[in-house]
Every structure is written in structure tokens, then in C-alpha cells.
Write a structure and sequence with these properties.
Elements: H1 5-13, H2 28-41, E1 59-60, H3 66-74, H4 80-92, E2 97-101, E3 106-111, E4 116-121, E5 124-130, H5 133-142, E6 145-146
Parallel strand pairs: 1-5
Antiparallel strand pairs: 2-3, 2-6, 3-4, 4-5
Helix pairs in contact: 3-4
Length: 147
């Protein structure tokens, strides 16, 4: 999970009850909503959603599967290690636009010019591939991405 300890600290400091899911775990998207509402009431928001800075990516999960080896080859990398290094470098760069999905608790980076698409959660890259603008726009709607 991304580093959201600050969000729990904010809730405690402001006597905000942590919203819970049916299974008793914290409802993180609802907690972000409460935080954004609090910021708006206290003059600290421009009306745009605010999300924590994503953790730096450091590795790729499931790197040695046939699926990922095929993607590495499709993208012109010599081996999975080169592919992993490129994925981590791209995610950690300022290229393209960084998005966040509250629904999936993941960060997405997409560079429209090249079509490079990358998804990371907890510092681990899960997806690195070339996506058309049409495919990205579909993911953007489905996963409810916000800049």
C-alpha cells in the first residue's frame, strides 16, 4: 500500500472517525473524500483532488512470466532485467502524466506521445506496455483516474 500514514495522522489529529469497510478494514477512498471535504472547508484546496506522492518504484512483480517476457520483447528490450529497469525509470520520471486511482489504490503514468503506460502500487510496477490513447482513455474511465 502507498504510504498513507499521514492520512491516518490527519484523521486522529482532527478527531475524524476512520470509515470502515464491511470487513472492518479502513475505507481509504472514503477517508480521502473526508480529507478533501475538510481541506475545502478550511480553505486549503483549489477544488482538485489531492493525493499523496507515490512511492518510488523499485522493482517489477512477476518479471519472469512468459507474459512479461513477451512484453519486454515487444518493446525492444533484450531481456526482462532491461525491461524492469526501463519500467522503474519511466514510472519514477516526470515523463507523461501521473494519475491516481482511489478505487484501486494504484498510481498510473501515461505518456500520450509514445503510448508508454505504467502502473505501480507500493513501489512495485505491475504493468509496463504501449497503449493506444483509446485504450488508455478506457482505463482512465474504468479505474476512475485523477491527475
Amino acid at each position: 500500500m502507498a504510504d498513507i500514514g499521514w492520512l491516518f495522522g490527519w484523521a486522529k489529529e482532527n478527531a475524524i472517525d476512520i470509515p470502515l469497510n464491511a470487513d472492518g478494514t479502513a475505507n481509504i477512498p472514503k477517508l480521502f473524500e473526508l480529507y478533501d471535504e475538510w481541506r475545502e472547508r478550511n480553505g486549503g484546496s483549489s477544488g482538485t483532488k489531492s493525493f499523496p506522492k507515490p512511492p518510488k518504484a523499485y522493482s517489477f512483480n512477476r518479471l519472469n512470466t512468459k507474459h512479461h517476457k513477451d512484453h519486454a520483447k515487444e518493446m525492444g528490450f533484450k531481456n526482462p532485467k532491461e525491461y524492469e529497469a526501463a519500467a522503474v525509470e519511466f514510472f519514477n520520471s516526470d515523463r507523461g502524466v501521473l494519475y491516481y486511482s482511489e478505487a484501486r489504490n494504484r498510481y498510473y503514468r501515461y505518456e500520450e506521445k509514445t503510448g508508454i503506460f505504467c502502473v505501480s502500487m507500493d513501489g512495485v510496477v505491475n504493468t509496463f506496455n504501449i497503449y493506444s490513447k483509446k485504450k488508455f482513455d478506457l482505463i482512465k474511465r474504468q479505474d476512475k483516474l485523477h491527475e
